[in-house]
Design goal:
It is a single chain. This protein is mostly helical. The chain folds into four domains: 96 residues, no CATH class; 97 residues, DNA polymerase, domain 1, CATH 1.10.150; 161 residues, Orthogonal Bundle (hpI Integrase, Chain A); 46 residues. Helices cover 51% and strands 10% of the residues. Strand 6 and strand 7 form a beta hairpin. Helix 1 packs across helix 2 and helix 9 crosses helix 13. The longest helix is centred in the last third of the chain and has 33 residues.
Length: 448
């Protein structure tokens, strides 16, 4: 830790100096070690105050120079404070380099991004997937195009990344250059944020330009199939075997909530007997490696039995003969046309359908749905599990019935008062017991 820190402005006369303005320098002294910086200004020696180390007089030129010197001094002090806070080695040379950005200038945004992607590529299958790497490569491509289009640069210093840069990049992604959806643009901006946080962690920068940045992107509504649409697809007869096969696998995921990659890799060994004596799926999500324990509904169990001896299942030791994701989605478009379904049918829609039509709309608690989907955070489930109009109708019907019951109870109590309270027998009968049972029956004179 430094024990002495001093800043000293002075005039430095060049060799063979005769007359004219002289450049102003700043000397940084820390523990008797010195380093000098030219502040980019000069002044006539006769106008320099040696005692105050500032320009003399009240003229505008003197005021501007003194303001510049105060600004430089303030920035140097901020650099020194940040170095103390981050635990950097503090000496005069390091403070000077940090102020001038000499160390950080050598670190470029795209250069760091490429290093990140190379490292990610080496971790495929060990925390990262091919699809994740593909999206980060797309991010690098978008950033490269943005720098060229907006700034005419091949790369940029990470010290120059600020909030306006981030906002301009977000606008670039959403406008005519790429026409990304708000969610896609937000994803690419988050990739940039990851790189910035990496730079902060390595102390290549000291301030986070994302500190006061807030995304305005809102999640797009999840598309799912209704109960009738699921029934139409499930009961449709197809002349082509491949469509029947794709339909069965899609319906299986509608009743299990498994994502494409998870059903593709599902093994017979991951089907077991649960504590309730029934068949369960015991697997883990490929995306997050989260354990998933899922009871098999009869519809899903029936499909498993259908393909138990399918040649592809036997050869690959899988539960179902799943095509590539691209082929599955292509065939699902054919299925949608044949079934008269106007929605854009994709394989992932089965997962949305499980979360909404199959579970939530039938009263399954969202906590249980979240666990079956393998989500780490229930907020993720809330995006998938859109509350259906039918569920809202069901809940409001229950409320209406409760209010009707309360109204009936009040009417029964009034009837008791009218029939009994004004009669002589009321003097010897305690009616509170009858009122407490008013929801079941109205007491009669015989019962009294």
């Amino acid at each position: 830790m430094s024990t002495n820190f001093n800043l000293f402005f002075y005039l430095k006369e060049p060799k063979r100096y005769k007359s004219g303005p002289v450049p102003v320098y700043l000397r940084i002294t820390i523990d008797c070690q010195r380093s000098e910086i030219a502040v980019g200004r000069d002044i006539e020696p006769s106008l320099w105050d040696l005692e105050k180390r500032r320009a003399k007089g009240t003229k505008e030129v003197a005021k501007q120079l003194n303001h510049h010197l105060d600004t430089v001094q303030s920035k140097i002090k901020d650099v020194h404070t940040n170095m103390i806070a981050t635990g950097d080695e503090i000496n005069a040379r390091n403070v000077k380099d940090a102020y001038l950005g000499i160390n950080a200038q050598s670190r470029k945004l795209l250069e760091i991004f490429r290093e990140h992607n190379t490292e990610m590529e080496g971790l495929i299958g060990n925390g990262f997937s091919d699809n994740t790497l593909r999206t980060f490569k797309s991010s690098l491509k978008h950033l490269t195009e943005f720098l060229e289009a907006k700034y005419g640069l091949e790369d940029i210093s990470i010290r120059k990344i600020d909030q306006p840069f981030i906002k301009n990049y977000d606008t670039f992604l959403r406008t005519k250059h790429h026409k990304c959806t708000p969610i896609s643009a937000d994803k690419y901006v988050k990739h940039l944020k990851k790189i910035i946080l990496l730079c902060l962690g390595n102390r290549w920068i000291t301030e986070n330009p994302f500190q006061h940045y807030k995304s305005t992107a809102k999640p797009t509504p999840r598309t799912f199939l209704t109960k009738d649409e699921v029934s139409i697809i499930k009961n449709k007869e197809f002349a082509v075997e491949r469509l029947t096969q794709v339909r069965d696998i899609f319906i299986f995921c509608c009743y299990t909530g498994l994502a494409y990659i998870d059903v593709q890799k599902l093994k017979p060994t991951e089907i077991g007997i649960g504590d309730d004596g029934k068949k369960w799926i015991f697997t883990s999500r490929h995306k997050t490696n989260t354990p998933v324990h899922l009871p098999l509904l009869p519809e899903a169990e029936f499909i498993i039995e259908q393909y138990k001896h399918h040649p592809l299942c036997v050869a690959k030791s899988t539960v179902l003969p799943v095509f590539t994701n691209q082929r599955m989605n292509s065939y699902l478009k054919e299925i949608a046309d044949l079934c008269g379904i106007k929605k854009k049918l994709t394989f992932h829609m089965a997962r949305h359908t499980f979360a909404t039509t199959i579970t939530l709309s039938n009263g399954v608690p969202i906590e249980t749905v979240s666990k079956m989907l393998g989500h780490l955070n229930i907020k993720t489930t809330q995006h998938y599990a859109k509350v259906l109009d039918s569920k809202t109708s069901f809940d409001m019907a229950a409320l209406a019935q409760k209010l009707e019951d309360q109204k009936a109870t009040s009417a029964v109590n009034e009837l008791i008062e009218e029939v009994f309270v004004e009669t002589p027998i009321a003097r010897v009968i305690d009616f509170s017991n009858y009122r407490s049972r008013a929801n079941n029956s109205i007491p009669t004179l015989e019962s009294c």
